[in-house]
Amino acid sequence: MLFYAMNFVHEDILNYATAHSNAVSSLLNDLEKETHQKILYPRMLSGVLQGRFLSMMAKLLAPNVIVEVGTYTGYATLCLAEGLSSKGVIHTIDCNEELTAFQKKYFNKSIYTNQIKPHLGLALDIIPTLPNAIDLVFLDADKENYLRYFEDLLPKMRKGGLIISDNVLWSGKVLNTESTDVETTALRHFNQCVREDSRVTSVLLPIRDGLLLSRVN
């Protein structure tokens, strides 16, 4: 059965899981609310439960360098920043100039404002300019380039670093052989390539729209 939805777990279970996870800050609540009020495609927001998962992964790693490909309105950025080391930096990349002011508004309100380094432009151009020894990557941008981002970032990561790739289930469309659009085809190929890549150890979790976790060997 194909669901074609962002969540693959019953709504009541999701609500229970969210209610029994740590609450988010008022800043994140405000960001989520304003995103739904003013920004197109608010379903692209990571959301509370996925945000708490990203925060937990970052806190477990205590990273010095995080790279986020796809900032959107900055919700996931701020969640990931919660786990940064005291001198850590998160480089977040987006090509949508129209969202810059929105992002800046919330980044400046955050206690992590001096640790967030926004980059405006194409990720494939920006990634080569970023520092090495990356601890944590969050991929959440154009799906057809996921494998290129992965290949460009992997050599810049430290051993034991983690790449988290979002939307890898693509509302369940990856299961439907009749879905041959560019994004679905790219994600199927990406998921298979990462699964077979001996440089990483991976697990695909059905959290929200699918998160693929790949640890650098």
N to C succession of SSEs: HHHEHEHEHEHEHEE
The geometry reads as globular
CATH class: Alpha Beta
Tell how many strands the DSSP assignment holds.
7
Q: Give the strand order of the largest sheet, numbering strands 1, 2, ... along the chain.
A: 3-2-1-4-5-7-6
CATH architecture: 3-Layer(aba) Sandwich
What is the CATH superfamily? Vaccinia Virus protein VP39
CATH overall fold name: Rossmann fold
Report the structural category: alpha/beta
Strand percentage: 15-25%
State the helicity in percent bands.
Answer: 25-40%
Total count of domains: 1
Main pleated-sheet profile: 7 strands, mixed
The rounded distance between the terminal residues' Cα atoms is 35 Å
Number of helices: 8
Given as residue ranges, the uncertain stretches (5+ residues, pLDDT < 50) are none
Q: Mean of the pLDDT scores?
A: 94
| Rg (C-alpha, Å) | 16 Å
- Oligomerization: single chain
What does this structure look like?
The protein has 217 residues and is α/β, with parallel strands linked by helices. Helices cover 37% and strands 20% of the residues. The chain is built from eight helices and seven strands, in the order αααβαβαβαβαβαββ. The longest helix is centred in the C-terminal third of the chain and has 15 residues, at 182-196. The mean pLDDT is 94.
Q: Keywords, please?
A:
217 residues, alpha/beta, Rossmann fold, 7-stranded mixed beta sheet, 7 strands, 37% helix, globular
